[in-house]
Design goal:
The chain has 223 residues and is mainly beta. The protein has two helices and 14 strands; from the N terminus they run H-E-E-E-E-E-E-E-E-E-E-E-H-E-E-E. The strands form two sheets. Strands 1, 2, 5, 6, 7, 9, 12 and 14 form an eight-stranded antiparallel beta sheet that branches. The chain has a six-stranded antiparallel beta sheet with strand order 4-3-8-13-10-11.
Length: 223
């Protein structure tokens, strides 16, 4: 597996400062994929936005899992198609063991070529997601990071209360400090997914971007 090119971790804080002031009108080729993961609703290569852990690929930001448990379609932030609308519909879909199939209700942002190493700046950075809540969640919501493409190595943050407190139908930039992602035997030197967003309930939101940004450790509060 080829490792994607990356900023040296010692210089990464500088890169993040640059990223904060960068224009989001840049093309994928100009965006550093170790800092930018999703831009204008589209994965920054080699990151790929999909449903059900890559089993449902999006075409023109459009796709759906079984029974429309999770539906994606193009949305507008500043111009047509520069965001993706995601609608979670509570459906009973069982896996082979007879349990609720969580995969069909998971939005995935996965690195298709390699991994990134954020271990040295874990306590100084946050994943920032540009989103707009259209329908607040009525059930638990989690967002997870994953390493080594291994489901056993995920670390998560509960988002239900966070999303319920956000203003409806307004774009916000939501920072999620990396040090708040807990649980699982995750390896921050080999991150392969920067967003696994899941709920078994109803939820509707739009997402335009996901990126890394500097975040002072003294401002971090993990609930």
């Amino acid at each position: 597996m080829k490792k994607s090119a990356f900023c040296h971790t010692r210089a990464l804080i500088f890169c993040m400062v640059w990223a904060a002031s960068a224009s989001f009108a840049q093309s994928d080729e100009e965006l550093n994929p170790n800092i930018f993961y999703l831009d204008q609703g589209h994965g920054v290569v080699p990151w790929e936005l999909s449903l059900q852990f890559g089993q449902v690929l999006l075409e023109n930001k459009t796709g759906a899992t079984v029974k429309n448990s999770l539906v994606a379609k193009p949305a507008k932030r500043d111009k047509d198609g520069d965001a993706v609308r995601l609608t979670w519909n509570k459906k009973k879909v069982l896996n082979e063991w007879g349990d609720q199939n969580e995969a069909v209700s998971t939005l995935s942002l996965i690195n298709k070529e390699g991994f990134i190493d954020l271990a040295e700046i874990r306590d100084q950075a946050a994943l920032v997601i540009d989103l707009k809540v259209l329908e607040r969640p009525n059930d638990h919501v989690t967002i997870s990071l994953e390493s080594n493409w291994d489901w056993k190595s995920r670390a998560s943050i509960p988002l239900k209360n966070v999303l319920r407190k956000l203003p409806k139908k307004e774009w916000v930039s939501l920072p999620l400090p990396l040090q708040c992602f807990k649980g699982g035997d995750i390896d921050f030197t080999k991150l392969t997914s920067m967003m696994l967003l899941h709920t078994d309930g109803n939820l509707e939101l739009e997402i335009s971007g996901a990126r890394l940004a500097a975040f002072p450790p003294e401002q971090v509060t993990c609930n």
